[in-house]
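User: quick one, sequence for these tokens?
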């Protein structure tokens, strides 16, 4: 199945928390509930359990994710958090979002909307 992937950058403990927080947030939307999954990285030797480094969801959900993802990103920036993630489309295209500025939010959201627009995909 073709999927979108939202992968986080940074420290494994931080991106694991971010991935789980985003998945929980997306799951609050009735159309997305139960339709997103975590991508787990196997544990390194000597470690227990894997960490989640990405949220994945089916291609047909692409446009449905825009609104809740936008809300999550905006709330994250307003709380003073940094956003550093990469979206991967099923066609192989990537969009990197990396900011800690609320002032940059509109530009990021415009780029995100264009990236998730089915008419923009090749």
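Assistant:
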């Amino acid at each position: 199945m073709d999927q979108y992937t939202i992968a986080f950058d940074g420290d494994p403990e931080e991106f694991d928390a971010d991935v789980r927080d985003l998945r929980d947030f997306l799951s609050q939307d009735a159309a997305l509930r139960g339709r997103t999954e975590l991508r787990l990285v196997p544990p390194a030797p000597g470690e227990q359990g894997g960490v989640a480094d990405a949220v994945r969801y089916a291609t047909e959900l692409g446009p449905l994710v825009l609104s809740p993802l936008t809300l999550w990103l905006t709330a994250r920036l307003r709380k003073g958090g940094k956003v550093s993630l990469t979206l991967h489309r099923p066609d192989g295209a990537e969009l990197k979002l990396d900011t800690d500025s609320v002032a940059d939010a509109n530009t990021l959201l415009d780029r995100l909307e264009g990236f998730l627009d089915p008419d923009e995909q090749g």
